[in-house]
């Protein structure tokens, strides 16, 4: 009976792995909405988060390019 349960779990894991590999995973949010709200003393519109997310991703991409141009694999504050 234990062998059947183990086989069932293994089959289930294989299914999940196949399912995940077919789809492209959407980009995860870098910023936290709740932390952003706490960081300011004003109301925050819902479309602000998307703009902030885009700005942060742009900053990271530029920092990554600068570090790569300087033949480094580590981002440093001066890359911002």
Question: Which key phrases capture this entry?
Answer:
mainly alpha, flat, 80 residues, 65% helix
Q: What does this molecule look like?
A:
This protein is mostly helical and 80 residues long. It has one domain (2-79). The protein is 65% helix and 0% strand. The protein has 3 helices and no strands. The termini are far apart. The model has no long low-confidence stretch (mean pLDDT 83).
Summarize the structure.
The protein has 80 residues and is mainly α. It is 65% helix and 0% strand.
**Portion in beta strands:** under 5%
Q: Fraction of residues in helices?
A: 55-70%
- Largest sheet geometry: none
CA-CA gap between termini: 59 Å
- Number of self-contained structural domains: 1
The count of β-strands is 0
Structural class: mainly alpha
Total of helices: 3
What order do the SSEs take from the amino end to the carboxyl end, as H and E? HHH
Any low-confidence stretches, pLDDT <50, length ≥5?
A: none
Mean pLDDT: 83
Radius of gyration from CA coordinates: 21 Å
Give the overall shape, derived from the CA principal axes. Answer: flat
